[in-house]
Amino acid sequence: MDPMGSAAAANIPKKPKIYVSKSESDNAHVKDDYDDDAEDLWWTLPQLVLTEIFWLLPVKDILNAGLTCRRWYEIANDDYLWKRKFHRHFKTDPCIALKPGAVSWKSEYERLTFGIPFVQSQCLKGHVHQVLHVSFSHNGEMFSTCSKDGYVIIWNAGHPCTEKYSQNMKKFNWKYTQYSQFNQSDSLLLVSGVHFGSPHSTSGEIAVFTVDGNVESHLRCRVINRPYDIFGTWFSDQYLISGDLHWLAQMVSTSILWLNKANQEVDSEHVPIMNQLYKFYNRNASSVRAIMMAKCPWLDESNDPLITASTSDEILESPSDDIEMSEHSLTVQNSVGNPLSHSASLRRAFHISFDDSTPSTSTASLSLNWSLQRSNDSTIHYLDEYRREFTGDSVSDESVDEEEDEPMDASDEYDEMENSIPKYLIFSTGSKTYTPHQIGIKRIRNITFPKKLDPGPSLKERIAAKKAAEQQNQFRDPDPDWWDYEAVADRFDKVDKVIDLHGHIIGMALSPDHRYLYVNTRPWPKNYIITNPLEPPPIAQEIDIHVIDLMTLKRIGNMLRAHKAYTPSTECFFIFLDVCDDYVASGAEDMHAYLWDRYYGISLAKYKHTDVVNSVAFNPKDNEMLVTTSDDFTIKIWRSRAKAKQMNVDASNNNEAFYLKNSEDK
């Protein structure tokens, strides 16, 4: 294309006279008829000048002008014009290239304008208390919600969304449900909840229900889960992971992860239904929490980052910023949001004296309502290699989808432990204080589940072995010094990688291809010195998002001051986020949910509730559908403007969602 357009203009002696039909502009038929009158000089303008004029027009006028004639149509669809429009409207870095796989800058502008979830199509009110969590089935046909009313409800995801199943977990002595997850074949639903008990109780439970078909949902199994904020997760299609916590000494404990069969109806008492998976050492009253599984098909012995990476803590702190204490006190409502972590009660459970005379930055000397004085930039900043390697998850999703589409028949002989697929076990933990501030990663290798219980040695054999060990001085002290990790390290499984995020972790989510881990944190003050592990540092009111590449186990992106949270560290609760192929979404305590584009990192929209937004979830088969849940007892369904038009959803009075990038282009 001639950038000046002068040659083309010189070869056209006459200007076409345009007639446009009365039908809608997008279906207009343009007819050209040459007229001898060339008084209008628009046709003689050089193309560069005309392009600049188009650049100054609002987007709607550009589209309308493109229906005028062939020349204006070509200018209205010029990719460079739309690139400038895109960067101007969404305020992106001009150096960022077009997303791989995208057709044009115009199509990207259209996707981020008409293709993002924006129109509230429904407001479901099936729960009568705060709604804490939402999750979708892998086929996108169902989603489940958990609430403090003690119910878990499974909904049909089609429009309009309707209730399919519901289970009242209070009949099992549950206080409330807090988390749910579908298995790979979408035939079973894992539900995690909290038991009734004393304020110091950390007891929870996992229940598994059938959800396939149109028949009533049935209970398959129940498994103790302690502490309850370990949540639980599926290990494979028919096996799940639960946790247990045992105290070894003051502020020293061990977290044991158990592998459980989803179907625990067995014909013999000699057939095992659970088996110990890992046993981790916890210091300073911390524990393993929020476990999840990541399938990592790219892993092998030649490129395993855990082989060459240091196992010591990698500290990922925010850039050095000035930290200023707020003059205003913080009002906290204990009844809002997801349930508090069990660690919130530890300060009351332990009675330990610490030297208060040590000069340091402590919680007592700082207000909980401190804020980071940073530029108000809600953009995810990635390293260059992220966008170079960004493929929209298309390659990895194919392998995942193929696996998910395979029929799962428990009677067939197949790799039920899925050892052919390399995996990471990911969880939040801590070492400096009891609040979770570190990401723990464990490579899972060749897990087997016993077919028959091993009765072990007889009493006579055990006594003989004990005597032989005592004679050889090989008998281990039954009550060792648990505070000395090096002395007892052989009794525990080693965490392969620990990443310290220097802040309170309040949410984690994997990308669809399990390549990237997105983490919500509320940062600590920089260079804060912790002298009492039961008095964690004050946390910011702003939530940061960190992006960790699981292929390299390094942070490749972060967004500072992304959204808001107000509760102090001792009462902080989970704010669930979700990631799809194109977008990232998260709840917040400021009564809104937020949406960002994954590739460009830009903030796109926020969704209004009347109380804390606890959880969000994308439909895995339709990125244009988002579900948000809140303390206002509601579940809101958001769809794109394009989908809303197809479904005849009235979007004219939509005042519950807001674009975060306002400009004259709208």
UniProtKB/TrEMBL annotation:
Bias kind Acidic residues: ranges: 395-414
WD repeats: 124-156, 606-648
InterPro entries, sorted: F-box-like_dom_sf, F-box_dom, FBXW5, WD40/YVTN_repeat-like_dom_sf, WD40_repeat_dom_sf, WD40_rpt
CC terms in the record's Gene Ontology section: Cul4-RING E3 ubiquitin ligase complex; SCF ubiquitin ligase complex
Keywords: WD repeat
Keyword field contains Disulfide bond: no
Native source organism of the sequence: Glossina fuscipes
This protein's name: F-box/WD repeat-containing protein 5 isoform X2
An individual GO BP term: protein ubiquitination
Superkingdom, natural source: Eukaryota
Stretch list, region Disordered: 392-414
Annotated signal peptide: none
Pfam families: F-box-like, WD40
F-box domain sequence ranges: 39-85
